[in-house]
């Protein structure tokens, strides 16, 4: 409890409410504890107002739940608490809660609580007035116990009333006095409930009169609405307790006073006053009656102009209640007053008067009984009003009068006619109703439309017929109004009401329908005609049929037998299909069938003749809907068909042709149907009549001096339609003899209008449609069947040509007529007839061109030049599409082979590939229809060996990713059907389900999303399905079909083609046979593709194809002209995406095979096939290797690439040195101009590839570029320098690959041309210059190869080998002593062999000896040094300074080993050359002089004399003459 009560302080309003419910639930368990705890809590705790109020409220609920179990002591505590809260609190909510608690306690202890509250009253306090209100409520709740104790309370209360000025206190006291007065009235009206002596009203006269005077005279004029309303309500209560004399005295002043301050509460007060006065038979009301009636009527008029709501309706009912109170005493006066008000031509006044009259007729009918005639006259005068509001309430008054048998009196017919007149009000279809959810118009409605009024009166008439026992009265009235022309709009309700009345009379065994056929001679015909309208008769069909059935006996006794049998069937069909306008023709045929049976049953020539006359009369006199009038012509034709009198037939046909509205399409069609029906039994008469009518109008039709107007064209249209219906309806044996001469000739003559002997172009739409419909009927009439052989129509070609002209004349961008659709229907029917067409392609192309080009019916352009609404336009477009699809199906039926399907499909390919969405949508929807139709008709027993179906599959498959959702969905469905057709043609049985094909259904779910990802997924899925479903022999055809889509104008189609191509080649590429053809087609399309994504996808597909057929694909690619265009280059680059190693290896092997076979050994300037092939391979290799993503290929094939490209580069450069290159040049001599490159492109490609290899193989070609290495390597004379620089760089960046490179190059030293050996020798020689070869254990291999090169026949190779062997001193510097003997010996041998004058090889050998000697340790002692020294001495006096300089260089290197102690003989040889050295210090050659100076400086280290050593060291800074003098 403590927890619950503590939560009452929560500020959320929802929490106290839930806590109150919790306390109430606990109180049901232990009320005493709950109430005691709450009392204690409220006594000891000071709470905020809100939680305190909530807690007291909860206590009140607990008390009410446990009223019978409360203890007196607890009740006393609680009442004390409540009274204190009420007295001390200043909050009204607290006072109200405490008051409720006391009242609830009073239900258990009324007297005790009353006394306790009375004792606590302290007058003149604000709380006192709430205590009085509590006493009043307590008294109201316990009338019989407490009313006898009220007199002291009233006596004490009256003095306090005079001093009250606060409005809230006045309100409280008024409410209290009202409750006390109401309690007294309840006590007096039911005194049996008390045990004490009965009280009388006069006991309270004094107090009530005093309070009444105060309220009326002092408080009533107050302006506060709340207080004023409470005062009036209190006065209404107290007026009933006043004595009679007081009442008579007060009425003359009270009524005017109340009327002066008229308000809603005043009405209730006045009603109470008037009721009291009437009950006491007060004569004072007579003088006040007129002012009361006027005031009340005015108030009603005001209230009826207010917006309709609960308050205004309540106010109206209270005012009308006053009239009801006055009516028993003043009936005639009130009716006279209302008559006078109705005579006033004012809508508001009439509305008020009729509202009062209706209310009085409903509430006090017994008082109105004696005034029926007066009331009838009064209402009849109001029937001419023009206000819809007045008419609406007047109709309700009439219905109320009908309920009380007013219509049986004279003038009742006029009231019924008034209702029917409103039911016949014409209404617009789009007219809005103001009371859409109510059956009747409210009397307070501000606006009442004709539609509202009509609906209300129809409802009232239904109520009269269905609920009131006035059938006999209504039958005679309604039957007259059925055929009244001016009430045609009300035919449905009147006929339905008549039928209901008739059924009720029939059930009551009253079979006298009082139908005087002479008075109503044309009643049956309108009923039959009205029942013919399935949808447009507004529900009148069933009532009309029913009424006709009821009147069958009066029409003719023979009709009963037929109608008894057919009536129920007709009614059921009409009720079930009343909202299906497409069944109108079927319904009419059913009716005509019943008419035929009826006429056959009657078999009365006179009666039938009279029927024809009456039908003809109806055409001119009856107001009929278009469908009804059209049916009348059809029905008349059926009646004429059953007539034997030819004169009557001819006359009837003339009447039909003359009376028909030729401008109305429906009438024109139905009159033609009627004439065709008549021709079934009277064909000659009909044809004669038509010809006579045509001859009658021929002058107007064909006169060259007469302008052919619209009416003439419509007449011709009617006649053409008549001929069509004759051919359609008449037996075939009757038509065949007359078709060519009497019918078709006349039809074409009517259509082909000539002006001045020349055929003029027909522009009339109706005439065109009539011809197309007639041709369709003609073709259908002569369709071949089992009973009839094929009919050969000699003028078939002429009719088809005419239809084609009509189709071609229609605009391509607008569809506003049915000509296109109707002409295509005619063509579809004609092609079934003989003779057969040679080809349907032209016909199909014309139709497709004029239909598929049309925009969608929703588009704005489709609405041009047409007055059709959206629904009509939609139907026209839909039906036109259905017609062209029907034509395609009919053409397909002529050849149900795959070739036939392909032939029809081929005519739609242009539209399928159109850039316009609506054309593609129509074409693909038609394709779907064709495929579905073909699949239904297909019957294959054996496998079809070859067919073109796969071409259709390929074309349709590309549309599965079309931007239009309609195209995508239709394409998937079409593909689904085509694949099943393919399976059936492959021999699978009908009904077979393929898992892969069924997967297309799952694809359909994702077609609504048109994102790149969804597009890719859809295309991939389609490609997978095709790859698994298409047979191997059909694969190439499918691929080539898909390839065509690569260049489609629509980006999505080309993307789809690329994806499908990719999938097909990926999954089925291994089985392809024609690789060269496939690649040729792809490369040709590649040049026409503008979309980058598609181009990339195609190149990727080729790379996938290469993964399946690498040699074939690469060989084919190498056949393309050089240089490759960008597309072929892209293909080579794309090979990296698949197995990039294989293409690179293939290309490298291709290059290698060229020089392995020796085809490059004798390259000339002429481009031979080997050179061309080499260039192609180089171009391809460049595209593969130079790609940024080719790093992994380069890393794997690095050795092969470097070795092969070096060899090929030497071929391309064709290294050529001058013949005197190894001859020591003389001063001023040059080698002449450098030779021209053999093939610059090959050099460029090879160098570019090498550069890419160097860059992407973790290398850097910066040094090569800075030092001009790439220029050197392609120079014929300096090629070896570029190779040397390249080798140097490779030792730094590609050391791990050097072993393989050397292995690749070594075999090439044996059997390749001189230029290649030069390249290898230069490369190997430079490698020996770097220590990395020692680490790689390549030293011996390289030395061995270079030693072998010394034996080469090429001096250049020998020279480069000598140079390379010298480099070994640096490459093996750490172990030079191991190789120095062999190297020096080799150099000595070379010097000896090449000692011819001017030979640079010897010079290079001495240079190499210097390199070796320079790397040896000074303590090296080997006899080879002496040999070197002896060999060099011979060249110290050589005639060429270069040789002498080289020899002195060697001498300088030998000086290092000149230690006397270690090698005395060697030292002697050294010293012996000193004189020669000094002599050459003054040589003419600067080169020799400089070398000698350097060598002389070296001598200083080995001289034994310190002075000489010092002099030699300083010598390079002194002049030579001084040296000589010193010596």
Secondary structure tally: strands: 2
Helix content class: 55-70%
The rounded distance between the terminal residues' Cα atoms is 137 Å
Approximately how much beta-strand content do the residues carry? under 5%
Low-pLDDT residue intervals, each spanning 5 or more residues: 432-440, 513-522, 701-708, 1159-1167, 1226-1239, 1517-1527
Q: Largest sheet, if any? A: 2 strands, antiparallel
Shape: flat
For the largest sheet, list the strands in their spatial order.
Answer: 1-2
Query: Helix segment count?
Result: 80
Overall pLDDT level = 76
Provide the structure class: mainly alpha
Structure description:
The protein has 1527 residues and is mainly α. 69% of the residues lie in helices and 0% in strands. A two-stranded antiparallel ribbon has the order 1-2. The radius of gyration is 62 Å and the shape is flat. Residues 432-440, 513-522, 701-708, 1159-1167, 1226-1239 and 1517-1527 have low confidence and may be disordered.
Element layout with pairings:
Layout: H1 2-6, H2 14-29, H3 31-44, H4 49-65, H5 72-88, H6 92-106, H7 110-119, H8 126-141, H9 143-146, H10 150-161, H11 167-189, H12 205-219, H13 225-238, H14 244-260, H15 264-279, H16 284-304, H17 310-326, H18 331-342, H19 347-363, H20 365-368, H21 372-380, H22 388-403, H23 412-423, H24 450-467, H25 471-482, H26 491-507, H27 524-531, H28 541-550, H29 552-555, H30 559-576, H31 584-602, H32 605-621, H33 626-641, H34 646-659, H35 665-679, H36 683-696, H37 698-702, H38 710-729, H39 732-735, H40 739-751, E1 754-755, E2 758-759, H41 765-781, H42 796-809, H43 819-830, H44 841-851, H45 870-894, H46 898-906, H47 909-912, H48 917-937, H49 949-957, H50 965-985, H51 995-1004, H52 1012-1029, H53 1035-1044, H54 1051-1068, H55 1075-1086, H56 1092-1108, H57 1110-1117, H58 1126-1134, H59 1141-1156, H60 1169-1185, H61 1191-1213, H62 1240-1256, H63 1262-1266, H64 1269-1273, H65 1279-1293, H66 1298-1305, H67 1308-1311, H68 1314-1327, H69 1332-1335, H70 1339-1349, H71 1355-1371, H72 1376-1393, H73 1400-1415, H74 1423-1433, H75 1441-1454, H76 1464-1471, H77 1474-1479, H78 1486-1499, ...
Antiparallel strand pairs: 1-2
Helix pairs in contact: 2-3, 2-4, 3-4, 3-5, 4-6, 5-6, 5-8, 6-7, 6-8, 7-8, 8-11, 10-12, 11-13, 12-13, 13-15, 14-15, 14-16, 15-17, 16-17, 16-19, 18-19, 19-22, 22-24, 23-24, 23-25, 24-26, 25-26, 26-28, 27-28, 28-30, 30-31, 31-33, 32-33, 32-34, 33-34, 33-35, 34-36, 35-36, 35-38, 36-38, ...
């Amino acid at each position: 409890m403590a927890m619950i009560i503590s939560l009452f302080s929560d500020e959320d309003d929802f929490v106290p409410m839930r806590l109150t419910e919790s306390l109430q639930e606990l109180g049901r368990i232990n009320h005493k504890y709950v109430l005691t705890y709450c009392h204690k809590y409220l006594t000891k705790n000071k709470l905020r107002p809100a939680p305190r109020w909530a807690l007291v409220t909860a206590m009140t609920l607990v008390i009410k739940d446990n009223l019978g179990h409360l203890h007196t002591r607890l009740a006393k505590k609680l009442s004390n608490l409540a009274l204190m809260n009420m007295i001390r609190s200043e909050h009204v909510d607290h006072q109200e809660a405490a008051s409720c608690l006391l009242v609830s306690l009073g239900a258990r202890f009324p007297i005790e609580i009353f006394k306790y509250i009375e004792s606590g009253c302290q007058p003149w306090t604000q709380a006192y007035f709430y205590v009085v209100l509590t006493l009043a409520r307590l008294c109201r709740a316990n009338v019989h116990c407490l009313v006898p104790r009220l007199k002291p309370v009233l006596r004490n209360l009256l003095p306090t009333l005079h001093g009250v000025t606060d409005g809230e206190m006045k309100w409280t006291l008024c409410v209290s006095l009202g409750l006390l007065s109401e309690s007294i009235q309840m006590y007096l009206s039911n005194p049996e409930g008390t045990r004490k002596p009965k009280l009388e009203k006069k006991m309270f006269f004094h107090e009530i009169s005093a309070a009444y005077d105060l309220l009326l005279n002092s408080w009533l004029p107050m302006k506060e609405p709340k207080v004023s309303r409470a005062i009036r309500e209190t006065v209404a209560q107290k007026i009933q307790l006043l004595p009679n004399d007081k009442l008579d005295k007060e009425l003359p002043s009270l009524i005017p006073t109340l009327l002066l301050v008229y308000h809603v509460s005043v009405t209730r007060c006045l009603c109470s006053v008037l009721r009291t006065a009437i009950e006491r038979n007060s004569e004072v009301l007579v003088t006040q009656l007129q002012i009361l009636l006027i005031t009340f009527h005015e108030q009603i008029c005001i209230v009826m102009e207010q917006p309709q709501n609960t308050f205004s309706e309540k106010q109206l009912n209270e005012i009308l209640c006053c009239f009801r109170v006055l009516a028993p005493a003043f009936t005639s006066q009130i009716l006279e007053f209302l008559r006078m008000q109705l005579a006033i031509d004012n809508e508001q006044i009439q509305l008020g008067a009729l509202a009062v009259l209706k209310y009085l007729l409903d509430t006090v009918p017994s008082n109105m009984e004696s005034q029926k005639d007066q009331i009838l006259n009064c209402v009849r005068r109001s029937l001419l009003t023009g206000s819809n509001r007045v008419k609406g309430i007047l109709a309700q008054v009439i219905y109320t009068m009908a309920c009380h048998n007013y219509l049986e009196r004279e003038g009742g017919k006029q009231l019924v006619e008034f209702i029917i007149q409103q039911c016949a009000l014409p209404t617009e279809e789009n007219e809005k109703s103001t009371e859409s959810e109510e059956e009747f118009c409210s009397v307070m409605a501000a606006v009442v439309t004709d539609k509202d009024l009509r609906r209300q009166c129809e409802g009232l008439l239904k109520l009269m017929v269905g609920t009131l026992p006035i059938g006999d009265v209504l039958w005679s009235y309604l039957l007259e109004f059925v055929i009244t022309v001016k009430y045609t709009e009300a035919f449905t309700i009147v006929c339905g009401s008549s039928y209901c009345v008739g059924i009720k009379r029939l059930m009551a065994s009253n079979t006298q329908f009082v139908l005087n056929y002479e008075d109503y001679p044309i009643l049956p015909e309108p009923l039959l005609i009205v029942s013919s309208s399935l949808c447009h008769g507004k529900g009148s069909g069933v009532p009309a049929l029913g009424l006709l059935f009821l009147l069958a006996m009066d029409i003719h006794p023979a009709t009963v037998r037929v109608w008894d049998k057919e009536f129920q069937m007709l009614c059921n069909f009409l009720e079930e299909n009343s909202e299906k306008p497409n069944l109108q023709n079927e319904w009419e045929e059913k009716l005509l069938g019943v008419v035929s049976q009826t006429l056959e049953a009657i078999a009365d020539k006179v009666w039938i003749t009279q029927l024809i006359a009456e039908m003809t009369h109806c055409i001119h006199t009856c107001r009929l809907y278009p469908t009804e009038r059209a049916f009348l012509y059809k029905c008349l034709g059926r009646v004429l068909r059953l007539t034997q009198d030819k004169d009557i037939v001819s006359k009837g046909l003339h009447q039909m042709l003359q009376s028909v509205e030729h401008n109305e399409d429906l009438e024109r069609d139905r009159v033609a149907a009627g004439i065709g029906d008549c021709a079934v039994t009277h064909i000659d008469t009909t044809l004669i009549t038509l010809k006579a009518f045509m001859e009658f109008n021929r002058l107007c039709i064909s006169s060259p001096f007469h302008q052919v107007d619209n009416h003439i064209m419509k007449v011709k249209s009617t006649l053409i339609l008549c001929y069509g219906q004759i051919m359609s309806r008449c037996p075939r044996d009757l038509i065949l003899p007359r078709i060519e001469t009497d019918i078709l000739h006349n039809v074409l003559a009517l259509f082909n209008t000539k002006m001045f002997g020349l055929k003029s172009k027909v522009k009339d739409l109706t005439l065109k449609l009539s011809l197309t419909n007639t041709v369709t009927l003609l073709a259908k009439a002569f369709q071949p069947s089992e009973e009839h052989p094929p009919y050969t129509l000699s003028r078939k070609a002429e009719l088809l040509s005419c239809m084609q002209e009509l189709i071609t004349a229609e605009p391509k961008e607008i569809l506003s007529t049915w000509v296109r659709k109707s002409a295509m229907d005619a063509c579809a029917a004609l092609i079934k007839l003989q003779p057969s067409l040679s080809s349907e392609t032209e016909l199909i192309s014309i139709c497709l061109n004029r239909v598929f080009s049309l925009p969608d019916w929703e588009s704005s352009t489709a609405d041009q030049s047409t007055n059709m609404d959206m629904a009509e336009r939609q139907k026209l477009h839909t039906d036109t599409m259905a017609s062209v699809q029907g034509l395609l199906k009919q053409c397909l039926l002529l050849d149900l082979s795959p070739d036939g399907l392909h032939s029809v499909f081929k005519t739609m390919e242009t539209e399928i590939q159109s850039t316009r969405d609506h054309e593609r949508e129509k074409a693909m929807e038609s394709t779907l229809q064709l495929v579905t139709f073909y699949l239904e008709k297909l019957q294959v027993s054996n496998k079809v060996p070859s067919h073109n179906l796969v071409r259709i599959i390929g074309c349709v498959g590309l549309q599965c990713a079309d931007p239009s959702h309609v195209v995508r969905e239709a394409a998937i469905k079409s593909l689904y059907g085509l694949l099943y057709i393919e399976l059936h043609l492959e021999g699978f049985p009908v009904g077979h389900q393929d898992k892969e094909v069924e997967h297309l259904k799952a694809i359909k779910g994702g077609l609504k999303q048109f994102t790149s990802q969804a597009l890719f997924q859809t295309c991939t899925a389609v490609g997978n399905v095709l790859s698994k479903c298409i047979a191997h022999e059909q694969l190439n055809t499918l691929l080539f079909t898909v390839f065509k889509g690569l260049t489609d104008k629509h980006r999505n189609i080309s993307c789809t083609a690329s994806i499908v191509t990719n999938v097909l080649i990926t999954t089925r590429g291994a089985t392809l046979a024609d690789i060269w053809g496939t690649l040729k087609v792809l490369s040709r399309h590649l040049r026409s593709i503008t979309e980058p994504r598609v181009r990339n996808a195609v190149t990727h597909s080729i790379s996938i194809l290469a993964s399946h057929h690498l040699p074939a694909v690469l060989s084919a690619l190498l056949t393309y002209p050089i240089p490759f265009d960008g597309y072929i280059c892209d293909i080579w680059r794309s090979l990296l995406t698949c197995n990039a190693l294989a293409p690179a290896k293939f290309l490298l092997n291709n290059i290698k095979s060229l020089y392995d076979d020796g085809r490059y050994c004798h390259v000339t300037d002429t481009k031979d096939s080997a050179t061309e092939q080499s260039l192609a391979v180089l171009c391809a290799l460049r595209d593969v290797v130079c790609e940024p993503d080719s790093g992994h290929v380069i890393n794997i094939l690095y050795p092969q690439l470097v070795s092969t490209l070096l060899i090929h580069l030497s071929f391309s450069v064709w290294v050529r040195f001058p013949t005197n290159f190894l001859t020591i040049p003389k001063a001023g001599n040059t080698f002449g101009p450098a030779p021209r490159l053999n093939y610059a492109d090959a050099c460029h490609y090879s160098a570019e590839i090498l550069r890419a290899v160097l860059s992407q193989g973790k290398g850097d070609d910066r040094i090569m570029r800075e030092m001009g290495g790439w220029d050197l390597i392609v120079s014929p004379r300096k090629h070896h320098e570029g190779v040397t620089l390249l080798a140097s760089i490779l030792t730094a960046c590609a050391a791990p690959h050097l072993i393989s490179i050397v292995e690749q190059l070594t075999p090439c030293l044996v059997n390749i041309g001189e230029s290649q050996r030069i390249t290898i020798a230069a490369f190997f020689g430079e490698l020996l210059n770097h220590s990395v070869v020692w680490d790689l254990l390549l030293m011996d291999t390289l030395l061995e190869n270079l030693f072998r090169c010394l034996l080469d026949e090429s001096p250049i190779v020998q020279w480069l080998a000598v140079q390379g062997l010298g480099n070994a001193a640096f490459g093996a510097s750490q172990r030079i002593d191991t190789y120095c003997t062999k190297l020096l010996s080799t150099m000595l041998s070379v010097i000896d062999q090449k000692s011819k004058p001017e030979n640079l090889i010897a010079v290079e050998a001495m240079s190499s000896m210097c390199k070796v000697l320079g790397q040896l340790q000074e303590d090296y002692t080997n006899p080879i040094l002496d040999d070197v020294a002896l060999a060099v001495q011979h060249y110290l006096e050589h005639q060429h300074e270069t040789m002498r300089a080289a020899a002195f260089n060697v001498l300088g290197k030998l000086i290092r080993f000149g230690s006397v102690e270690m090698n005395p003989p060697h030292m002697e040889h050294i010293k012996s050359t000193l004189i020669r050295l000094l002599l050459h210090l003054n040589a003419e050659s600067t080169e020799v002089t400089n070398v000698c100076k350097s060598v002389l400086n070296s001598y200083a280290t080995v001289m034994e004399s310190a002075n000489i050593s010092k002099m030699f060291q300083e010598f390079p800074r002194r002049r030579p003459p001084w040296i000589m003098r010193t010596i």
